[in-house]
Design a protein that fits this description.
By secondary structure, the chain is of the alpha+beta class. It has a single domain, classed as Cyclophilin-like (Cyclophilin, Beta Barrel), CATH 2.40.100.10. The chain is about 20% helix and about 20% strand. It contains 5 helices and 10 strands, in the order ββαββαββββααβαβ. An 8-stranded antiparallel beta barrel has the order 3-4-9-7-8-6-5-10. Helix 1 crosses helix 2. The longest helix has 12 residues. The radius of gyration is 17 Å and the shape is globular. The relative contact order is 0.23. One of its GO terms (molecular function) is peptidyl-prolyl cis-trans isomerase activity.
């Protein structure tokens, strides 16, 4: 697995300010080789995934989201299952995640970047043969959805090459941030022009999270079960580039309520 910080888009979560960066990429990151899971509809064989483009991404995801209202998914790893709820008021991101899941795109992905007390990042793999297309997802920032501990969000390029803050087509991350102080939270509110609700403030002060990422990356879901598995993944021994020394592959399937 080649470890590089080149300009490829596939493995980029570039964090702003003084926060640690989650940034990486792989030579064949837009490929996947996966078998259909039980969650894949009969007419949707993995090898028929239509690569999306900048021109058609919104139209295609809107249509897909209307016909596939799934809002729960399970990310399975050797450390256990992580159940996530996908927000319906971030429809493009929800539809994109469900689409790639149902076509089996994520089934040879892995958690490839881990920073303890910050986030685990997944969605990519060197072994892909399935192409999803060179597209980005328009940002869907929503003040209701913050980077609290357990938040599910999409990675993206940095502002210098992505001023619209559009999301990656497939790289996601789960926040594992620690509690912040009242002073830190006030500083983030002033910097980003945010007025946290009492409930959001309490979440950051007690549960933890990464408020520095709010209004920078689209949060489109949250962990509802399995944070113990997330915690095990974030404790994986890593190399100097925050890559787990032992691969942490994942498969994903949608589930019903």
């Amino acid at each position: 697995m080649k470890k590089t910080l080149s300009s490829c888009f596939s493995r980029a979560l570039l964090l702003a300010g003084c926060l640690l960066p989650l940034l990486s990429c792989q030579n064949s990151s837009d490929k996947a080789d996966a078998e259909a899971t039980d969650s894949v509809a009969a007419e949707e064989e993995p090898d028929t995934l239509e690569p999306l483009t900048t021109e058609n991404v919104v139209e295609k995801l809107e249509a897909y989201g209307q016909s596939h209202p799934d809002s729960l998914a399970v990310i399975s790893t050797r450390h256990g299952d992580i159940k996530v709820r996908l927000y319906k008021d971030t429809p493009l991101h929800r539809a994109n995640f469900v689409r790639l899941t149902k076509y089996g795109f994520y089934n040879q992905g892995e958690f490839y970047r881990v920073i303890k007390g910050f986030a685990i990042q997944g969605g990519d793999s060197d072994g892909r043969t399935m192409k999803q297309g060179a597209y980005k997802i328009p940002q869907e920032f929503n003040p209701k959805h913050i980077h609290k501990r357990g938040a599910l969000a999409m990675a993206r390029y940095g502002d210098d090459r992505n001023p619209e803050k559009e999301s990656s087509s497939h790289n996601f991350y789960i926040v594992t941030g620690e509690p912040v102080s009242k002073e830190q939270l006030l500083a983030y509110e002033q910097k980003h022009g945010i007025d946290y609700t009492p409930e959001q403030e309490q979440a950051y002060l007690t549960l933890g999270g990464e408020p520095g990422l709010d209004t920078e990356y689209t949060v489109f879901g949250e962990v509802v079960e399995g944070m113990d598995a997330v915690e095990k993944i974030e404790k994986e021994p890593v190399d100097g580039s925050d890559w787990p020394r032992q691969v942490v592959p994942h498969t994903i399937k949608t589930v019903t309520e």
